[in-house]
Amino acid sequence: MELYDRAIELASNPAHARWLSPLLLAADACLCAFIILKIPYTEIDWEAYMQQVSQYLDGERDYTLIKGGTGPLVYPAAHVYIYSVLYKLTDGGKNILLAQAIFAWLYLGILTIVMACYRMAKAPPYIFPLLILSKRLHSIFLLRLFNDCFALGFLFLAIYAYQHRIWTVGSVAYSFGVGTKMSLLLAGPAVGIILLQALPLRRALNAAFLMAQVQLTIAWPFIPRNPIGYISRAFEFSRQFLYKWTVNWRFLDEETFLSREFAIALVSANLGFLALFAATRWLKPSRQSISEFFVAMWKPRPLLVQQQVSLRVTASFIMTSTLTSMMIGLLCARSLHYQFYAYIAWSTPFLLWKSKMHPVGIYAVWAAQEWAWNVYPSTKASSAVVVGCLFIQVLGVWWGTREDGADIRASNDRNDQTHEHVQ
């Protein structure tokens, strides 16, 4: 019985994650080396990336004229700069083994940050092994070399900086991530609400202005030549993916998938989920309704009130809100491709834990999701599991966090009473 209790304590006490993390990182480093050496590289977008950045390096600055083997350039400018560096490092993209090694180091670096974010949020050690077990995630990084890997890194760097209350670094990292791939815009609603509660209004607006400056700076080489062309290509909201490549809605017929009514339903569901979380979860630190929050937002909070609200914006709250916002957007996306699993793989263990699900349930949902994302091409069954697992995470987090912040509220109530007594 004593041995059992010790095992439970080791698995559930967040303090043990500090020594478990480097062991898992070492094991994953060995796994990465094995994958690179033993499993053939799969060409999908790398050659197109190299063709596109070569045109940029040759002097082309009209975004609409930059094209590759898979079509026109449809990513923001930070993507171009990142892959331009890789172009030079890998002999024009020809040295695939070196590129894979670079992505392996990128993978391990991001995983280090992810584990640090988990520890800051007091996640238990028993979910940490799930961070290194995804076959699909290793494939995205090591065998496909997708730009989502860099965007994911900026996302977790932003979360890590925000958790440590380094707001400027976090905002720059987040904006640079958006400048790499606009998928990170899905986290925008949560990021905005976090900043408006953690900071006084002026500082929150400064953070937003800084993000805009980052976007303008990275876009500037292309703006004088064709500003509309850059914006329309880098942030192409009207682009539709083909039904044959969808991972998430394959269980629907193609006519429904392509219909305008389905698109409107997804947008409505996305907005509905965001409103639900904003009203019932994300505004907990301010203790205000949505209407009260936006009315009061333009009035500076008293210093003591602002400090108390900011203290309620905890490391766990920041990570939960940001990842939930991403997951809502992915759940309601019209089409997900396999590389989008990059944003899911390291979010799922944490969100399932926040849903208060039993550890057996966490591992079961994770395994089902991992299976579904490794079915190629997707089937009706696999796509239904993909959507079902995302839905479980979103609704699970909403239900599981209903009591979050109670201890902080109680502590602040005692502080308020003490303050009133002193007055």
Distance between the termini: 53 Å
Q: Can you write the helix and strand succession as a string?
A: HHHEEHHHHHHHHHHHHHHHHHH
- Silhouette: globular
User: Can you give the mean pLDDT?
Assistant: 93
- The Rg value, from CA coordinates, equals 22 Å
What is the β-strand count? 2
Biggest sheet, open or closed, and with what strands and sense? 2 strands, antiparallel
- Spatial sequence of strands, sheet with the most strands: 1-2
Beta content: under 5%
Number of helices: 21
Unreliable parts = 409-423
Helix/sheet category = mainly alpha
What's the arrangement of secondary structure elements?
Blueprint: H1 2-12, H2 17-38, H3 46-57, E1 67-68, E2 71-72, H4 77-89, H5 96-120, H6 135-144, H7 148-163, H8 167-178, H9 188-198, H10 201-219, H11 227-234, H12 254-258, H13 260-282, H14 290-296, H15 303-312, H16 315-331, H17 342-345, H18 348-354, H19 359-373, H20 380-400, H21 406-422
Antiparallel strand pairs: 1-2
Helix pairs in contact: 2-5, 3-4, 5-6, 5-7, 7-8, 7-16, 8-10, 9-10, 9-16, 13-16, 16-20, 18-19, 18-20, 19-20
Question: What would your notes on this structure say?
Answer:
The chain has 423 residues and is mainly α. 67% of the residues lie in helices and 1% in strands. The protein is built from 21 helices and two strands. A two-stranded antiparallel ribbon has the order 1-2.
Relevant terms:
globular, two-stranded antiparallel ribbon, 423 residues
Summary of the model, kept short:
This protein is mainly α.
